[in-house]
Specification:
The structure is a homodimer of 353-residue chains. The first copy, chain A, has 353 residues and is α/β, with parallel strands linked by helices. Chain A is built from 13 helices and twelve strands. In chain A, helix 9 links the parallel strand 6 and strand 7. In chain A, helix 1 packs across helix 2. Chain A is elongated and about 90 Å long. The first copy, chain A, starts with 16 loop residues before the first helix and ends in a 12-residue tail after the last strand. Chains A and B meet through helix 4, helix 5, strand 2, helix 6 and helix 11 of A and helix 4, helix 5, strand 2, helix 6 and helix 11 of B. The structure holds a DNA duplex (16 and 16 nucleotides).
DNA sequence: TTGTAGGCGTTATCAC
DNA sequence: GTGATAACGCCTACAA
């Protein structure tokens, strides 16, 4: 433990390639190659260089490297909001992998604002990120900008949704399957009138795909889809509650609800309670996310389609990293399968409906 | 809108200082000065340079700047876990300010692991961050390393706790006051037997300070502190529940509980319910954090000592930024006052106790 | 397999 | 006030 820890900057600057080269009586280029493990060289020399570098406490100067090599070892990540209840898992997955590969992660928040989206993308470009991971974004302008990115050598991967199938790489969840297994589960419990709480925008990504799964399950079980059961709803607890109460007020008849996220599911359950209905005795509810946070805070434990965001984050980093290393811009899509987590909010239908 | 957006890298590289200088027939140095707003120069020329730069779509090359100036415009932030239910707010506060000041933020997660803490600090140093914000950390080794940082021109600010009073800058919450107002509130509701659910470690920061506030309130209301009421407890829902049930099993008598965080409070309430007690009819509960997430998911709405993490984040960035700009290493501490948010988990004592 | 040389884009230090 | 010039530390050709 005689290494010089701490340092590279300040008055007592750390050693540079030159210092190591001088110490060893070799050239800077050789040291550089040894350190990066590129080119062919005698293992003995490489070993010697590595040891000496470490002993002298050598630390790469990323600024110099970036300046010269035009690679920043910076990865940009764009998310809607940092304080979203699930985003931490995704970011941890990304960061873990990034760290292993000596990448730093820059995070930008969009806040559901189109101008902000453009500014953030531009800001990532300005900072010379090697790659960009974008999670739920999706304005046409933003998408266009993202598509242009590869002209600037920035590798872009869409995370959670497959933003531009065949034109941009992505790591996403099989939403159709998610919609299907949730609905199937309810059918197996003998439910036939299932509300679908989707997004609030037109043609919302998760909404539309899961709805296809929802419909497919209906087909398979020989039940006609009632279009009135497809309800617009925001992604918050309060929205879930409000919308559910509204359904009751409108006289919709149902014995189960499938919601777009766990927060909405929690809200729906609150609404049901407010209306004097019990879950799952009177109505079954299935959420989407499988959030640990929700499951530890909310009673009863939700039945939910669960996606492991940490893994999605890891896969996303690996994918963009592979793209960067291989300098390949061929779109590549990874689709992960969600799983049904059965909690205490679904049960065999007992109501007459 | 004829500017060249997108660019700095890739084949079609963006313009450099040199290009602007050439276009304007001035020297690179002058352009550089104009852009940074340093040194004295004729306003007319500065104006001309600024306009031309923007028209040509000039973008700073941070790598080059960092290499030459020994300032990276990078800020490191160390947190225990990214997926903590409150951390997003803190990070958003930091990022917002950082963005305004052209700083990028690097986030490292410690995961309650001492070696990891050291590695992360070292990693931030390696990346030449100009400053470091550390939120709840606290191993002696880590602290020592942080104290050494300023020898390397890295400005360090402790966030949420005042890690080394008088020796390191900090932005924190008046924990004593927090403990006081929570307890005072309960006294005002006529409670006299108040459990204090603290941390699980010896000499835990939040625990000890809030306990002082708790004791002070007892003094003022002329009630003796019962040391048995100080209970060790982790920061999770499950811990809160387990510990509360344990208290009941041990025959402790109380009419109120003050917990170290909202998660614990939620857990304690679950435990009370499991024991057949109602909140707030039988027992009042006060949490700490004022988390929106908890309040939207958990019923009933918690009474809680609330701290605005977003503001703390903003203040923390401003402080470290000021330190960086002024090159001052004098420790400076900012203390913010928490506020009591009164929800539906506290009520006038009705129980005989 | 290894060395030499030049420059990436910027800023700091002098001059003028 | 403004300009010339020399680094900053590294990587990439190309030469040996």
């Amino acid at each position: 433990m005689t290494q010089k820890f701490i340092s590279p900057r300040g008055s007592g600057r750390g050693p540079t390639l030159k210092d190591i080269a001088k110490t060893l009586g070799v050239s800077r280029a050789t040291v550089s190659r040894a350190l990066r493990g590129v080119g062919r060289m005698s293992p003995a020399l490489r070993e010697r260089i590595l040891r000496t570098s470490s002993e002298m406490g050598y630390k790469v100067n990323y600024a110099a490297r970036a300046l010269r090599s035009r690679r920043s070892n910076l990865l940009g990540v764009l998310v809607q909001e940092h304080s979203h209840y699930q985003i931490g898992d995704l970011l941890e997955g990304i960061q873990d992998e990034a760290q292993k590969n000596d990448y730093s992660v820059l995070i930008g928040t969009i806040r559901h604002d189109e101008d902000m989206e453009i500014r953030q993308i531009q800001s990532m470009i300005d900072k010379h990120v090697d790659g960009l991971l974008v999670s739920p974004t999706g304005t046409p302008r933003g998408l266009q900008l993202l598509m242009d990115l590869q002209r600037d050598n920035i590798h872009c991967v869409s995370v959670l949704e497959d933003l531009a199938p065949g034109r941009m790489s992505s790591v996403s969840v099989d939403e159709l399957l998610g919609g299907f297994i949730a609905t199937q589960h309810l059918f197996e419990l003998n439910h036939r009138h299932i509300l679908f709480f989707g997004g609030y925008l037109e043609d919302e990504y998760f909404d539309s795909r899961r709805y296809v799964g929802y419909c497919r399950a209906h087909d398979i079980y020989g039940v006609a889809v009632n279009p009135d059961y497809r309800i617009k709803c925001g992604y918050t607890v309060e929205e879930g509650r409000r919308v559910l109460l509204d359904c009751i007020a409108r006289g919709l008849e149902f014995s189960a609800v499938f919601t777009i996220c766990d927060m909405t599911a929690a809200g729906a359950i609150k609404g049901l309670r407010d209306a004097g209905l019990r879950v799952p005795e009177h109505v079954s509810v299935v959420g989407f996310d499988g959030s640990n946070l929700v499951s530890s805070l909310f009673d009863p434990e939700l039945t939910s389609v669960s996606q492991t965001l940490r893994i999605i984050g890891q896969e996303a980093f690996r994918l963009v990293h592979r793209k960067i290393e291989s300098k390949s811009y061929d779109p590549e899509s990874i689709v992960l399968s969600p799983q049904l987590h059965i909690g205490k909010t679904t049960a065999l239908r007992k109501s007459p409906l």
